[in-house]
Amino acid sequence: MELKFKTRVLLLIFYISGLHVIAILFFTRGFLLTRNELPLFSHCNDLHDNVGCNYTMLNVTALGNTFNTVPAVRENICELDRGYREPPRIASHLNSGNICWTPPAVKKIVILIFDALRFDFVAPSAIPEDKRRPWMDRLQVMQRLILEESTRARLFKFIADPPTTSLQRLKGLTTGSLPTFIDVGNSFGAPAIVEDNIISQLANNGKRMKMMGDDTWLALFPSQFHQAFPFPSFNVKDLHTVDNGVLEHLFPALHEDDWDVLIGHFLGVDHAGHIFGVESLQMVEKLDQYNKVVEDVISTLQNESACGRLHDDTLLLVMGDHGQTLNGDHGGGTAEEVETALLAWTTREQTHPLPDQCEPSSANNVGFRSSQEEQNKPIICDFQQLDFAVTLAAILGVPFPFGSIGKVNPELFGLVTGSLQPSKDTALNSSEVDCSAAEWLKLYSSILCLNCWQVNRYLQQYSKSSLNGFSISDLDILKNLYDDARSFSNEQSTTASSARVTMSSLLDAVSRYTKYLDAAAALARFKWTRFNDEFMAFGIAVLFVSLLIQLKAVRIFSVIPPMPVKIEDSYIFPLKEMIKSGYNFAVLSAGIFVLVYVFSGGSITVSAGQFVMILTGGIVIGTSKTYLFRRNLQTSKKIYKIIMRNVWREDLHSNFVGILAIIFSCIHACSLLSNSFILREQQVVTFFLVSLGIMDLRTALQQNSKVLQATWFLILNFILRILSEATLSKDMVLQSGDIKPGRPVSPYTSLLQQLSFSLLTVYAPLILVGYAFMTKLSRSYFPTRHLKAIQHLLPVTYAAICLYWLVEDLENLQLKAVPESIRLFVRLQIPRGIYLYASLALLGVLNAVVLLLLGRQGPLVAVISGLEAWCLLEKQSMYAPACESQRDDKAQIDYSSATVQWNLFSIQLFFCTGHRFSFDGLRYAAAFVGFDHFNIYRQGILLGLDTFGASHLLPIIGLQLLVSRRHVLRRNASDRFYKIQFSQTLLMFQLLCTVAATFITVCVAIQRRHLMVWGLFAPKFVFDAIGLLVTDFLLVLEFLYTTSPTLY
């Protein structure tokens, strides 16, 4: 049975979409590989004689790994040191046989995590006080500690590895490894960690852990905590539930002795940043609250820090997992996002000076204050988050996580062990160096020895167990560094019993270990993910095949009207021939592979993924070959030659503006190969639109037609460009220092000004949008059965949106107290009603949902962009023939210029609605409009509508206007002719999106070793790839939903 025209067009779109899916899946499989997680764990009995470390300093025997209890008071043999320190007492619930690798340096640890804690929230600022922003230096208790209690407090710049999503940072902090880029996709609904980590090590070695706060911890560690108080973390509009829950359980827990590690994870600052931005009153209030929390925690610990009391040997760590931009976003790799703070404070008084010089990459990585002047200066060192897990393991006396590639941080480790009493077998030249410093260096050198052995063991095992392991040459370089450090350490251990150990030799040993660990971490950062070049090349090749298919399809629809209907339909999509050819080539590919395998004697091995690629490649080659070079048309050879000449002709368009539009589209695609143009894509797109608009204005002046529309098109472009960076954005800068309680930080300090601003930028534009949509809908060229119902309910929808934002204004400005029942109804039920209405009306009123999710800038952007779209549509008629209404109904109409401008316009809308191509630009608050509780599917759909609604959904729905605007003038035009023209427009729009996605794919393949690949190129690729699939899906719906226009 012969397929109908509409069915063949749908199959063609499905075929092109299938090629896109195949290309993106294979390319991402080769580019966004996850690091292979080894299910191997470190154990106490892993240590053996071949480790080659000095167990004497660790108080650990090589055979039994039992803790050698030290007497309460040791004889001090160092002439320069008359002090002593009682070693950490083992908690009563722990068996001494469970202590392994290193002795515990503290009894308890309290970890307070302030999510999205920027470094300048904490660190002393060099900016003059009168020019500081209100949020700078708000946690002053930390600054006071490092100045007044410098012997037991230390502040670090805590540096994360991008991407800086909370899930990845928690995985990095606990495993000591580098979570890969693909884990961003698991930011919602995190899976449990299966590889070794510090939390599992603590649980397996008898440490009792209590957690309160972010429920992501329980998702990652479902059974490791002794007691947990999780609170839902995904509702970014809720600033207080998680924090109040932590405070409810934190201070009672500080007076209890049923834990060894206490974790409190606060989320208020992160949520305040997402909703209000850094420069907001809500952020200042949260920081002040956190400052008070830290003060109270320290006061509680100090009250219980006397000898023999509960917290006589407790370490407090106050830290952030990542930073945030001024917009309150995070996920990228900028300094604002990767730099956070870590404060370490111990309740135990230190009897010796601490290492206080920050570690450079040299032998002088441990030093001491040399003058009173230097003692008065706060020292802030860098601390890589990669080093946190292994450092915490060394402090708590548990095995280092098997997959950790970090190194024990000397400053933090020195804070808790800096006054360690020298052992009796130590021989030091006390006339050359301080005894305590040398003794500490011996201990730290032994710790680093274990650290290097563990990292070397992991790298060797990873390379054996993983297909994307490290190369032999890289491992040889690391092996030479490791052997050099071990041999030097063994020499020192051999001579230590008969000669005095000098300070320089200890520093040299530490330097050699550090050099190896730094090299291992650098190698992991550079080559952790070994890209699969085969899959990447295959994905790019399929994308280029889809480009050829789309190019030919667009040209086919421009020449088929003169052909007979039967031939025309068959030529659009020869389904039977393509299926047959695809099957034959798939069998041929598999047969060739089997023959090669047999003749090679089985020496050639391929993975399951490679075999699937071979079969898929055969299908793609077979089907695309039939479509591109088909010669069995049911027509004469002469007609075929005419068709092919028309399809592949070089004179694309006789209209200069059309040619220029195509050139601009190609330049835009090529510009994606440059990181600078990706960063400035919004300006590039606006430049192209304005340039084409100037050409249109020139034509309008020559024809004395559509001059007003062409002029306003230029003006509206400039307004949209300014609007995207103006006061509607969340990153407004506070110009006034007048901050009053209950008022948002805003340059509009008058209530009347704020109300007027909302009236002009929110309510009035929303009313205009609703009125314009209702008016156009009543005169629609596309009537449906539900038209009257949609038209009657539409005013109710826009009135509901106005009510939703009005109640929000009354609450924020404190003009009138809104009853709780009304507030909940408006905040939850009205958005849900709009979602239900849009679902019933399908595409008819999805613009209302997009407006609601876009927030308060949505109506104004909608008015301006709607006017710009109207101008764009109106001025296209300038290029229509003068007597178009009398033309033959099968004469060709060219839509290249209009489609290119519509595509650029859709990209412009993406930026004007506050989005950008980075994960820190995702507007998580939109996912919770109308809902307080998290559901991954529901919130994912809302976040997708917010991200792609204005730039993909609405422009694709409006594609039909490009055709209907001219088609209704052709009284004798047939329904079939309209479908042909509309199909050509859809395919051309899809082609433009594919070109951009193909070029950014090529770009990330070329730049895969670039410094900015994960911070810039990879996010851009992910957004464009997902956007291309969304475009394919919407084009199918658009083609199914659209009917021929009817003039009323």
UniProtKB/TrEMBL annotation:
Gene3D superfamilies: Alkaline Phosphatase, subunit A. Its main location: endoplasmic reticulum. It is found in: Endoplasmic reticulum membrane. SUPFAM superfamilies: Alkaline phosphatase-like. Pathway: Glycolipid biosynthesis; glycosylphosphatidylinositol-anchor biosynthesis. GO terms for biological process: GPI anchor biosynthetic process. Keywords: Endoplasmic reticulum, Glycoprotein, GPI-anchor biosynthesis, Membrane, Transferase, Transmembrane, Transmembrane helix. Residues 893-1024 form the GPI ethanolamine phosphate transferase 2 C-terminal domain. CDD domains: GPI_EPT_3 (cd16023). The chain crosses the membrane at residues 12-32, 535-560, 581-599, 611-629, 654-678, 684-700, 755-774, 786-807, 834-854, 941-962, 982-1006, 1018-1041. One of its GO terms (cellular component) is endoplasmic reticulum membrane. GO terms for molecular function: mannose-ethanolamine phosphotransferase activity. It is a multi-pass membrane protein. Belongs to the PIGG/PIGN/PIGO family. PIGO subfamily. This is GPI ethanolamine phosphate transferase 2 C-terminal domain-containing protein.
